[in-house]
Amino acid sequence: MNPDRPIADAQELLSDSQNITALDRTSRALDAAERLNPALNAFLQIDRAGALRAAQEYDSRNARDNGATSLAGTPVAIKDNICVRGLQASCGSHILENYHPPYDATAIARLRRAGGIIIGKTNCDEFAMGSSNENSAFGAVRNPWNTELVPGGSSGGSAATVAARITPVALGSETGGSVRQPAALCGIVGFKPTYGRISRYGLVAFGSSLDQIGIFGLNVKDVANVLVAIAGRDELDATSADVPVPDYAESLTKEITGARIGVPRALFGEGLDEEVRRKVESAIDVYRDLGAEVVDVELPHSRYAIAVYYIIATAEASSNLARYDGVRYGLRAEEAATLSDMYRHTREHGFGAEVKRRIMLGTYVLSSGYYEAYYRKAQQVRQLLREDFRRAFESCDAILTPTTPTTAFPLGAKTDDPLAMYLNDIYTCTANLVGIPGISVPCGLSSENLPIGMQLVGKHWGEETLLQLAHAYTEAQPFTELPPVST
Ligand code: GLN
What we know:
The protein is an alpha/beta fold. The chain has helices at residues 7-16, 22-40, 48-65, 106-113, 156-163, 180-186, 220-230, 274-289, 305-320, 339-350, 353-366, 372-392, 418-422, 429-434, 463-476, and strands spanning 43-46, 74-79, 116-122, 169-174, 189-192, 212-217, 260-263, 293-296, 398-402, 438-445, 451-458.
């Protein structure tokens, strides 16, 4: 059995044959992770012993109950800001370097119940703040398509893991695009659900009104299967919604004839790489050929999205990160004479430059005298963005744009220019601000052999339609190219 096979195949094979075991798949995934990690730096921890044990347990349970569960003993990689009992949860930060949560995030507990086998924790930008993975305290992740390039961020380790075929699926997190953006740059599928669709219990908080766990996969069906397994109301997260979870994987193959795809032409102009534009425009043609209707939509406030996002996300981060004070857990500076010195030294040594920048920005926009000018104003514009989308969705079922303005860029190219880095989120961060679901799907390669992603965003709780539309595209235009590093 090839461990790189998508879950969908594995399920069929599992029901056909008793010879394909979770143990077999898991040990191959572990071997691949250990072999490729020196080149990719995608994993911060590989849990060989725990994963093999879980796989064995799965196999014996399966033999006893005589039936595979939906995830069928599939190896999964988890971003290091999602709590897995007993494994580290550094969030890519020195301040949590030695933190081992004593509990599973709800998504993890559900993943295990469905037969997912966790093989390790993946590298990410510190506290998920970044678009290139270069903000990790443990070194940048490298893109499997070209190890001189970034994989995108902040869930770059999970994206690189799936792109390199180490695991067929992985979990990441999204605050402003951190699953869709690296998925696009690594040539895989990346999905962010409606806010409230997946419990945030056990996801380390960055911007609580924006954060969601997201899913990476090699195909839409696998993503849908994982979503079914982990979505739904959770008493441990008051923001998780009590909305029924349809069988997204079952309904994928529905005809899309007559579906309406909205295209905001104004977003296809300035700042967008020419090759990316052309590939995404061909994706629009594919939808036309599939019988969808393409309509123009307008999102007039989109040009403010980056500014609004970087006010709200930093404000919420400055508040959430106040808990890392060296008192209860994580790093504690030793040589401090007073309590406030201890706070100061701990935070000074524990946080990296980007996290400090965000805490300062966030504290500033919330401070007396600036609150009205920045934070309140940003919330008002956020409401206008919600209105833009509500209106646009009156005439379409999903909105299609590029996922990123460019293909993967060289390591170091934007590290000295935070604004240039922030602009990577231009197409993705609105979905987080508005709370709607989004998916990035590979739509071709550039002349330099780098993947290009197109994005679809849908209505609140419109995952079913969104996944159907994405699936229809990938069936019509399968993306079969492999990154060099996985071979
Ligand atoms: N790149 C964005 C940021 O730096 C988004 C991060 C994320 O989605 N976690 O904040």
